[in-house]
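Record pair follows.
FIRST:
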Amino acid sequence: MTRKVGVVGLGHVGTAVANYLLFSGFTDELVLIDTNEKKLNAEATDFADAMANLNAHTKIMVNDYQALKDADVVVSALGNISLQKDNKKHDRFVELAFNQKAAKEVGTKIKESGFNGVFVSISNPCDVITALYQKFTGLPTNQVIGTGTLLDSARMKKAVAEVLQVDPRSVSGYNLGEHGNSQFTAWSTVRVFDQPITKLADENPDLNLDDLSQKVRAGGYTVYHGKHYTNYGIAAAAVHLTNAILSDSHEELPASYYHAEYGTYVSSPIIVGKKGVVKEIKLDLTTDERKKFAESAKYIKERFEKAYTELTD
């Protein structure tokens, strides 16, 4: 069965996503879409030049929304990272005005194409833009997912692993809430060596959970200040989520999806399959963690409602 993926937005992140998909042979057909046709065609030509040295062949199409009709997954990586230049508060919402208009335009075109696969949004602010895409694509909520805190959770695992000198894949647990400043590490979910991280922290003075929380939250900005964008970490998260969909793996992943309880998109673990969200995972959080999650959801919902009103008035 042919696997088909679309990537909208061929900036640093979209190109990294496309590169990962192509070089790993994860898709048979790849549709690349961007408003900058000169750069888009250059990237497509560069990918085609690599094809003879790759282990798998991928058919590449450019700027054809109709080609998305039978795609399994479409990934939105559009954005304008230059807006972050003077953003001293490191607030992803500085990109909202630009990306909300793009989400309406792209979402409408995707709806017109007849696409009925799973839409994966990376674009910032991730939760609000994902919610806008759901509205403008008209897809069921289970078929529209944001990468959300999948990247934040990976950063948490890396931070814990560095202190305990283990592979990040040996750390389990989640960052929850907004992919932004109100996200938090749910330490009650984190385990290493089959031990709760809270127990290990009591025994290990080098394992300061408050310090680690700050390190995780600042992870993306450390990268940004070094090269003025981030791409590999988020691209890996997007491709991980895409592969879970393509393979119908029913893998448990933290991602931004629609929570009926809160009336908004916000990140917590789900089972991911061919049609997106297969099942919600209910976590046994502490009282403080539940409060933080509710506050983060409220923050997202208020900003989504304002953005959606601006776009539809």
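SECOND:
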Amino acid sequence: MKFCNVGGKLLDFHIPKIMGILNMTPDSFFDGGKHNNLNNALDRVGTMLEEGADIIDVGAYSSRPGARVVDFQEELDRLLPIVDAIRKTYPNAVLSIDTFRADVAIEAVKYGAHIINDVGGGNLDEKMFTTIARLGVPYVLMHSKGTPETMQNETAYQDLINDITSDLTKKIEALRSAGVKDIIVDPGFGFAKTLEQNYLLLSRIEELRVLGLPILGAVSRKSMIYKLLNSSPQEALNGTSVLNTILLFKGVEMIRVHDVKEAVEVRKLVMKTRAGEAKRSSYYE
């Protein structure tokens, strides 16, 4: 059974976890500007928790392709007030921080954050791995190449799945050497990958089980959905639910979503179906 130690409590993955997204940014691709106000953001957190979110993932730096650079202080100014407010208003909430900066991670954990979700996978801040080890918090290691400004020019691979696995393996070894105990891997849908590569990754994501770690799938309202369907992020909820269903059937332990209620429903239906499959299998043994 895979699990993580979150603030002294075990977060196990017997039931896949739902990570709800809270963007404190004006330029995120789907909900930029919606939650910049502290009260709006806190209301959104309350709604996601009521709908069944297991983790709230707070981001203050848009990592979408082509996003503008945000300096350290601006990221902190966006991030810390909401982290402080969540910890005071919802003290039992599990908080993840979406940042690639080690110094932001340090400040966020001081304010009560539990998990660091690094879209840079250690590439964008050489201090990140040793910082995570020192902080003693779970770490989401995402595969990517380049920066938000350049990643879409970094899509050359010899073998997509093998290259992702090799890159993550090397980083897991570095994290273990640094003393990091709890690692979740994210193959990075949409990061340094073409539309075709994203669907190849989706079709073969179970091959990442060789890493022996929980896998996070993050496809919510991304361009791999709305570009294929010739629509928009605002129209991509149905497609998101379809892909989240596929991810959960393939055994992914966590999904990161904008729409918690719908994701919880997907999880309930998938788990019921998987339970039925298990009963059928035991019947024929």
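COMMENT: The first strand starts at residue 3 and ends at 6.
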